[in-house]
Amino acid sequence: MASKPRTLYEKIWDAHVVERQDDGTCLLYIDRHLVHEVTSPQAFEALRVSGRTVRRPDLTLAVPDHNVPTTARVAPDGSRLPIEDAQSAAQLAALESNAPQFGIRYIDAVAPEQGIVHVVGPEQGFSLPGATIVCGDSHTAAHGGIGALAFGIGTSEVEHVLATQTLLLRQAKTMEIRVEGQLGPGVTPKDLILHVIGVIGTAGGTGHVIEYRGEVFEQMSVEGRLTVCNMSIEGGARAGIIAPDETVYDYLKGRPYAPKGDDWDRAIGWWRSLATDEGASFDKSVVVDAADIEPTVSWGTSPEDVVAIGGAIPEPESFADPSKQEAARKSLDYMGLTAGTPMEDIAIENVFIGSCTNSRIEDLRAAASVLKGRTKAPGVRWAIVVPGSGLVKRQAEAEGLDRIFTDAGFEWREPGCSACLAMNPDKVPPGERCASTSNRNFVGRQGPGSRTHLLSPAMAAAAAVNGRLTDVRKLSDG
Ligand SMILES: CC(C)[C@H](C(=O)O)[C@@H](O)C(=O)O
Ligand code: SF4
């Protein structure tokens, strides 16, 4: 008898169950563990106190990203420059000493490969299709873009994975987001995911793992897929995933940690078997028409507060749910905005191109192609580009993109999380607005009192040129 058709998520899950308990809880094997400095110090400390070791140091990769400054890290004499903020310095120092103590792979703050953990994982071929990947970080969902089951965990789970290479979990429900048709010109993966979150809301994916399906994703680059899956968490989902295919295999082949030789051929054979079976069913299904997706920007303090760039700030009363009406009023108050204002009338003083959502080479190319031969508007006080990793940075420099950015009045920085969450010195001043390619527009996210508008790299570049939110498609038309 043929076995029951399964989804991609179910296949990866089943392949990793070590033990299933009667109540449905499973002990799941973890293939890859990424570690950064913010959520790991207590986990390592707990191991130390209980005299435990790391079960699979070879499957664990640590890299500092949240607290690192994006200005020079090394003095002209070659010495490491000090980190001023005491807490940042302590977290970075802890990772720096924990990694060798526990024998785990470590990319230090001045290594050429250093970068945001979610950029580094796929780039190093450490994150692989069909793998279970965890990190003490909510945006771990990004790695779903290469066909991995990847999700964020808390610090106590970080400790559990370090000690046992397993996790106790209950299986999530399955959700399909099917995008039908083709994206229009100037519409990017970031616009797609912002639009999707606008449709499903920040709780739309709660309890589910989303599989993104449709031709759009088959045609999308790995970078674009990582962007889409990255923001699954903003739609409330446990993880987001896209079936791996030749695009992914071409991207991964030859990367430092990717399998080699026969191992590679065997791996591909398995990866090819992972796609959702015909006839498999999802617990929830949402269909989005690609033709409805415009360049999209956020207006409020939740990633679901989005509107097409040609639109206006909604009236709080236009929401059916009274709690949503109240949230919209609060958001507009915090953002200093009035309902009915056209989005293109909103002036911005800061531009941030970076974060694990949009700091890969394609993102920088997209922004640079808009900025080429143009400069930022006089009202734009601060504009920075923070590449996702040292390798992205060098690639961009080899292509001359850094010159395009600096000629346009942007600062060209060292890799890290930076103004995505402002744990390092890169902050948007209180009351100022930032056109940002990151993933969260929460109150105070980019610094106390900061006001964030989420958008794509091309749209961030267009906003820099005009000094206000701008439909990049009009700009390209001259
Ligand atoms: C600091 C870290 C735990 C946090 C996360 O989990 O996502 C951060 O990366 C973020 O984006 O808010
Ligand atoms: S870039 Fe931003 S969203 Fe991504 S891991 Fe860093 S802080 Fe979190």
Quick recap:
The chain has helices spanning 8-16, 41-49, 86-102, 117-123, 155-164, 189-200, 215-219, 222-230, 246-252, 261-272, 322-335, 361-371, 390-398, 401-407, 457-466, 472-476, and strands at residues 17-20, 25-29, 32-35, 60-62, 105-106, 132-135, 149-152, 166-170, 173-180, 208-213, 239-241, 284-289, 296-298, 306-308, 350-353, 382-385, 411-412, 433-436, 451-454.
Task: Walk me through what this model shows.
Strand 4, helix 3 (86-102) and strand 5 (105-106) form a beta-alpha-beta unit. Helix content is 32%, strand content 16%. The chain folds into three domains: 8-171 and 246-268, Aconitase, domain 3; 173-239 and 275-292, Aconitase, Domain 2 (3-Layer(aba) Sandwich); 296-476, 2-Layer Sandwich (Aconitase, domain 3), CATH 3.30.499. The mean pLDDT is 97. It has a five-stranded parallel β-sheet, covered by helices on one side. A five-stranded parallel β-sheet has the order 17-16-15-18-19. It has helices at residues 8-16, 41-49, 86-102, 117-123, 155-164, 189-200, 215-219, 222-230, 246-252, 261-272, 322-335, 361-371, 390-398, 401-407, 457-466, 472-476, and strands spanning 17-20, 25-29, 32-35, 60-62, 105-106, 132-135, 149-152, 166-170, 173-180, 208-213, 239-241, 284-289, 296-298, 306-308, 350-353, 382-385, 411-412, 433-436, 451-454. It is of the alpha/beta class. The protein has 16 helices and 19 strands.
